[in-house]
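Hello,

Our lab assistant flagged a job as stuck in the queue for most of the afternoon. It eventually completed. Since we weren't sure the result was trustworthy after the delay, we are filing this so someone can double-check. Below is the sequence as submitted and the structure that was eventually returned. Let us know if re-running is recommended.
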Amino acid sequence: MSLLELPVSTPEVGSARLSVEHETLYHYDHPVEQSQHIACLRPLSDGGQRLLSFDMVVEPTPAQHSVRRDSHGNSRAYFAMHAAHAELRVLARSEVEVRHRYQALAPDQGPTCGDVKERLAYCAHAPFEAASEYLYASPFVPLHPELRAYAGASLRDDRPLAESVIELMQRIHRDFTYAPASTDISTPILEVFARRRGVCQDFAHLMLGCLRASGLAARYVSGYLLTLPPPGQVALVGADASHAWLSVWVPGLGLPGSDDWLDLDPTNDCVPGVHHVRVAHGRDFGDVTPLRGVIRGGGHHTLDVRVTTRLQRAS
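-- returned structure --
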């Protein structure tokens, strides 16, 4: 499958304006007395996409609410409730203009896998390379020799890195089955690797493990997919919820808005175009969890999540 045949968008589409509505609703069996939460729901605004508007409504109204940037450049909202409540509703609305950063990508050009591994290898007194932050193991992505061996068929030192990682993505998509509810966030990636099935975050963690175990820098990306594709195009897997993919550091990529990072979606076997909205990036899911918190009380709870991403305009 060639790059332009991947299910991203038609080659002539250079940008799209998308609206996103992400609603999270917790119902508690007993009142929650106090709670503190962190939300990572505000999309990134950089050379590849422009955030046009964002609004987040929390019910009940928090007693405290603040926003700041984390060490990865993501926007995090912190809020706390000090009064008893039986449910929590968080509704985030965004409008984003997404640019197709990879239309001019030439996978068979650029640095080789060996070149990039050598550049990332530790050398005393060498200048700090920021991408190396995404080279090492993280809580959800330990380094395993089994993953390095699997990746080795694609990541040969003499091959162009972009070409190699696209092939690795295609192999993962072919060899592993997307199976909703087959895993949860605690499922180790070696179990996913052995069972050959999982969900989008498993596919992203698995490929991250393959790349980092091979000496390459890669980061986890959270975001959204267009819910309903344009006529004649196939719907992407994971379009009705938050989605996960990854990006690989390819120095000298030279594409506007890419900042030398190549995004790859192994769940859908594609190089993201204008139908992927990036919310945050980090070492793994733990760095970009959409909503998490600590509560006192509540007992058992149920969780409902609804995500709708609509195409407003394409050009």
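-- support follow-up --
The delay was a queue issue, not a problem with the job. The result is valid. The two ends are 26 Å apart (CA to CA). The chain is about 20% helix and 35% strand.
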